[in-house]
Each structure stands twice: as structure tokens, then as C-alpha cells.
Design goal:
single chain, mainly beta, 5-stranded mixed beta sheet, 1 helix, rod-shaped
Length: 249
């Protein structure tokens, strides 16, 4: 019978982690499995050219992580990104190595473009008469898009005065109908996500050409008194015009 003692060499046993797929902007719980309670771990992530540290030399085995929505800028033509997670295990200050995992994170529905719409009257009638005029004014429409995390605008759509345009700015023909006129705008980006439709309603003033009515012509005296043998002629008539906010006289 014999006995002896020996200090065993530490076997480097790296920690592992479980993340799973998810959605940008929504918290995920990262579960860490450690080979020893004496070990710590540092978690980092990388997505395209973006990177960050989730925790440094932590002993927590359940870690909450919310991937930034800004990571959507790493993919301007799709609706998801790949995030590579790395867990590095430490025994004191000694690194025992790393494990890496890649998961897919979708972009939330909020990652899409938006736009504003402005309308003017290039004919100048609206400035003069305080409103757009049927049969005379035109709509000049401009869409101003707001991009979402690096994606470019791939399509425009404007609907006004019974016509549809596929440009960011359009001028209609003269306005055909009086009353409320609805104008809509819409943009789509390179992720094939469209904005909410923006709508504005403009009141168009009714307009008709001046009208002469009740025309009467008869012979009269110099003072206008009707006289079949008079040496003068009197002309009487009444007329009407579209008031256009009482600015059209």
C-alpha cells in the first residue's frame, strides 16, 4: 500500500449560453451554463459593423439583453439582421476561451419610412382669393419622406384630382370639382415596407363664369322714360359672379 498527493491541472471548461431568435427592441433573456461557480463570463455581440458589450466578468446565469432597434441600419434591404454573440469564460483573470452563437432578429413593424405632404396652388389663385378655385387652380403636391435606419425610398405615390403620380412631387391639371378634395401620399423603402398613408383635405371654391340675365332693350326719352318714339335706347340687364369668399367683384 502506498499513498501520494498531486495538484491536478485545471481543465479549461468554457461556459455556454442560450439566446434564440428574437425581435430588435424586445428584451431577451440569455441563459448561461457554467462549469464552475468560480468562473465569470463576458458577453459581447456583433452585427455588421456594430458591436457592443452585454456584461463584463459577470457571475449571473440569467441576463436580460435588449438588442437596439438601431441595428436595423445593418440591413437596409431586408427586415431582419444576424447577431453574433460571444461568451468568453474567465478563471480569475485567465481566459479559458470563447464560444460564439449567431441568431436572427427581426425588425419591428415600426421600422418603416414616414412622410409629410404639402400642397400649394402654382397658379396663384389661392393666394388671391383665399381658396383653391374650381376650373382654375391646380394642386402642386410635395412628399417629404423620413428615412428609417438607413433604408432609401424606392417608390412614391400621390393621388389627387382623380389622377395618380409616382413621383415625390406632382402638379395636377386644373381642379375639376368643387367642395372637399382629398389628397393622399405614400412612400415605400428598399426594405419593401410602406409608410402609413398621409391624407390632407382641401376645400375647393365653386366657380362659374360670369352670367348676364334679364336683358331688356327699348326706345326711350333722354331721361330714360320708355317711349316707342324716343330718340334714345335704354339697355337693362342683371348679372352674377361667383363670390369666391367675396373677393371676386
Amino acid at each position: 500500500t502506498a499513498s501520494a498527493s498531486k495538484v491536478l491541472t485545471t481543465i479549461p471548461s468554457k461556459s455556454t449560453m442560450a439566446v434564440g431568435n428574437g425581435t430588435l427592441g424586445t428584451a431577451k433573456t440569455i441563459l448561461v451554463s457554467r462549469a464552475s461557480t468560480n468562473f465569470t463570463h463576458t458577453l459581447t455581440y456583433k452585427c455588421g459593423t456594430a458591436s457592443g458589450t452585454i456584461c463584463t466578468k459577470s457571475t449571473n446565469t440569467s441576463i436580460s439583453f435588449t438588442p437596439p432597434v438601431s441595428l436595423a441600419s445593418q440591413n437596409t434591404t431586408g427586415t431582419s439582421v444576424s447577431i453574433a454573440f460571444t461568451i468568453t469564460t474567465y478563471n480569475g483573470d485567465t481566459s479559458l476561451g470563447s464560444n460564439s452563437y449567431t441568431h436572427t432578429f427581426s425588425m419591428p413593424s415600426s421600422v418603416k419610412p414616414s412622410c409629410s405632404i404639402s400642397v400649394t396652388d402654382p397658379t396663384g389663385y389661392a393666394d388671391t382669393y383665399g381658396g383653391y378655385i374650381q376650373g382654375l387652380s391646380k394642386f402642386k403636391i410635395t412628399l417629404t419622406p423620413t428615412l428609417s435606419y438607413g433604408a432609401a425610398i424606392s417608390a412614391y405615390k400621390i393621388t389627387a384630382n382623380g389622377s395618380t403620380y409616382t413621383t415625390s412631387s406632382a402638379t395636377t391639371d386644373v381642379i375639376t370639382n368643387a367642395g372637399s378634395s382629398k389628397i393622399t401620399g405614400y412612400v415605400k423603402d428598399t426594405r419593401s415596407r410602406g409608410s402609413d398613408t398621409v391624407t390632407t383635405t382641401i376645400n375647393v371654391l365653386e366657380y362659374n363664369n360670369p352670367k348676364i340675365s334679364n336683358l331688356a332693350v327699348y326706345r326711350c326719352n333722354e331721361d330714360g322714360t320708355e317711349n316707342i318714339n324716343g330718340e334714345y335706347v335704354k339697355v337693362k340687364y342683371s348679372c352674377s359672379v361667383s363670390s369666391l369668399n367675396s373677393n371676386n367683384t
